[in-house]
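Newbie here. two chains, one complex. Structure please?
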Amino acid sequence: MHVLVIDDSKAMRIILRQILESIGGHVEEAGNGRDGLRTLQSMARVDVVLVDWNMPEMSGLEFLKTMRADSAFPNAPVMMVTTETEVAQMEKALEAGANEYVMKPFTKDVIREKLQLLGIQ
Amino acid sequence: MSRCLSETDMQCISNLVREHSAIVVESKKEYLVLARLEPIVKEEGFTSIADLICYVRRTPFGPLHRRIVEAMTTNETSFFRDLTPFEALRDEVLPELIKKRKDRKSVNIWCGASSSGQEPYSIALVIRELFSELDSWTINFIATDISSEMLHRCSEGKYSQLEVNRGLPVQLLLKYFSKNGRCWYVKDQLRNMIEFKEMNLAGPWLPFPKLDIVFLRNVLIYFDRETKQRILTKIREHMSGDGYLFLGGTETTLMLDQAFARVPVGRTACYRLRPVLENSGHVIS
């Protein structure tokens, strides 16, 4: 399982990396949406992208819209991992092409189960 | 607060739970007793778990004893736990039952030890979301638990953010739940599908209709062999000849009740009564 984690919090990236590696994931990281797009293009294989919403330079939602609009990017499943918990925001993420949604805080089980739902685990 | 229990205190809790639920609390599960009883100690104003147990010993069975039994028998759960039994429902069990029951247009489902309700609501979600033809059918869906507190939670259909984060596809969350503050509530269209009732698996059973689908997952493991056998016998008596029994991944009817045969269904397995399998030419393991 090859995963791209995009979050401006280094601590959050470390937590996600630890969780994903413990279930056999290979993780690439980026600190905002713009770096995320660059990293995504450089990856030979991407099974899933985990992306935060609120980040400097480019938000997770903008990242998602750009990724879905341009066929040059892989059509990998995207899971928003965010503190945004309002229904309207969640609907916005789904409309933009998110496949799953995790509300922070989360546990390892949450990530594992959501990956299962996406058929990745 | 004392962090460990004496052997006699452990035995006292173990006896109490066994007597009122038939569930076995092994002596190595001291950590579980401590974790489950500490909130009661604090809320009821006892000075320690030993103090609480001393009170339990001195007084006849009452609400506090019941609360302890309930605290010890409540288990962690999540939506679509293990996923594969729900795939089996979706891909094989419900399509087959729809064909077989098309004349009577009714399906009877029981979900035992439903805890905080995620398991029965997951079954209801599969039915409501994927089988619109069942909207006009009679779905007798009963979920039971030993704990009145858990049943209240189930009926209320109220879940925390962390609980809806676990195993529930976001599309179903948005469609079948409404948010109020930090809590999520099951919408009536789903909640009204299920009748929540109190039942001790080791006590007298409710008068079920003939059951087509039984979910009793991750429950038998807590009982001794004799109680497991009694429960399986009762399931057999209540189940339709062509019904489906789903147990937990580490549970089995093997060496307990020969009337059941393990049958693969998709990526998992369920248990079915042997006569119907023999008549239908299925291979029996």
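Moderator note: Chain A touches chain B at residues 85-87, 90-91, 94, 98, 100-103, 105-107, 109-110, 113-114, 116-117 (CB under 8 Å). Chain A has one domain: 2-117. Thread marked as resolved.
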